[in-house]
Write a structure and sequence with these properties.
Elements: H1 3-9, E1 17-25, E2 28-37, E3 40-43, E4 48-50, H2 52-57, E5 63-67, H3 71-76, H4 93-105
Parallel strand pairs: 1-5
Antiparallel strand pairs: 1-2, 2-3, 2-4
Length: 126
């Protein structure tokens, strides 16, 4: 279950495009774009490995930002209504469980023996 999906699932329904963010280390972030369709947040394409400078310079109007927003970035975005609150940014086990149940019910179950992590780039030494 992608972490970005869990973060997106915790957000209220909206007509805005949602950008879910997780830290990737070394000043990098992973950003996934989501759209609310058929009662849930659905990804629009693959997540992107980037940084805050690029995201903030290219953030289109009408996009809502959520997830692991660093303190200094949150300060730059202070007062903007399209930024999630800190409590909405948390990864919640309940969201993970609910998404897993929804995907299992929809027939999107995987064989547990074939599960593997999803990396934005190959781990060192791989």
């Amino acid at each position: 279950m992608p972490t970005l999906d869990i973060i997106a699932h915790a957000q209220p329904p909206s007509h805005h495009i949602l950008l879910a963010v997780v830290r990737a280390g070394r000043g990098r972030i992973v950003v996934g774009e989501y759209e609310f369709r058929a009662g849930s947040w659905e990804p629009n394409g693959a997540p992107v490995l980037t940084n805050w400078v690029d995201v903030l310079e290219n953030l289109p109007d009408g996009h809502w930002l959520c997830g692991e927003i660093e303190r200094d970035v949150r300060a730059q975005l202070e007062g903007r209504e399209w930024v999630c609150t800190p409590s909405q940014a948390l990864r919640r086990a309940a969201c993970l469980a609910e998404l897993a149940r929804m995907r299992l019910s929809a027939g999107h179950a995987a064989d547990a023996a074939t599960l593997e992590p999803v990396y934005m780039q190959a781990p060192l030494g791989a």
